[in-house]
Specification:
heterodimer, A: 113 residues, mainly beta, seven-stranded mixed beta sheet, three-stranded antiparallel beta sheet, 52% strand, globular, B: 111 residues, six-stranded mixed beta sheet, five-stranded antiparallel beta sheet, 0% helix
Chain lengths: 113, 111
């Protein structure tokens, strides 16, 4: 079974802090994704990556950056956290460029105060 | 652009059938997916259907696809309290590897 692990289930950070959300997958998947989930809005794509050192902007990249130094690890960075970034963050991975299902981690619930 | 729409809430009694509906806009979608999210967890792939199929059945789950109307539904037979969750419909976005998700339908199952 594919395992996608997000390092924290809950995080509380202060406004202005730099925040790192880490995600690791164990199935040698090329693609990795960061989504945020908010009630009534579903999942919105922040950034994704097709390979090491590659990154692509999703629908809502503002205020975020990402890092993919190793194939199995994809980090989401909030350079200066703000209260409107309080959300559930979901990492996912998949194989290939075709229509492959995404495999999700359990999510990180981030609260910015 | 691509868009996926779902109703936000459905309430059923235990033992009844549940039908969750979804509409999508991208006629070139090759696969359509249903995911389930239980409280405090990530999304779990439930089932999927290829765009050249009309129907797929998997135990208590039946997926119906009307490609002409771009309408997808998920039927859960004999709904149980353990089926209470948020259900997301998603379409594959061309050959990008990305999925476009709907807003999610919260299914409430009353005993």
């Amino acid at each position: 079974d594919v395992k996608v692990t997000q390092s924290s289930r809950y995080l509380v950070k202060r406004t202005g802090e730099k925040v790192f959300l880490e995600c690791v997958q164990d199935m040698d998947h090329e693609n990795m994704f960061w989504y945020r989930q908010d009630p009534g809005l579903g999942l919105r794509l922040i950034y994704f990556s097709y390979d090491v050192k590659m990154k692509e902007k999703g629908d809502i990249p503002e205020g975020y950056s990402v890092s993919r130094e190793k194939k199995e690890r994809f980090s989401l960075i909030l350079e200066s956290a703000s209260t409107n970034q309080t959300s559930m963050y979901l990492c996912a991975s998949s194989f290939g460029r075709g229509a492959s299902p995404l495999h999700f981690g359990n999510g990180t619930r981030l609260t910015v105060t | 652009g691509e868009d996926v729409e779902q109703s936000l809430f459905l309430s059923v009694r235990e033992g009844d059938s549940s039908v969750i509906n979804c509409t999508y806009t991208d006629s070139s979608s090759t696969y359509l997916y249903w995911y389930k999210q239980e409280p405090g967890a990530g999304l779990q792939l439930l089932t999927y259907i290829f765009s050249n199929m009309d129907m797929k059945q998997d135990q208590r789950l039946t997926v119906l696809l009307n490609k002409k109307d771009k309408h997808l539904s998920l039927r859960i037979a004999d709904t149980q309290t353990g089926d209470s969750a948020i259900y997301f419909c998603a379409e594959a976005s061309g050959n990008t590897g990305k999925l476009i998700f709907g807003q999610g339908t919260t299914l409430q199952v009353k005993p």
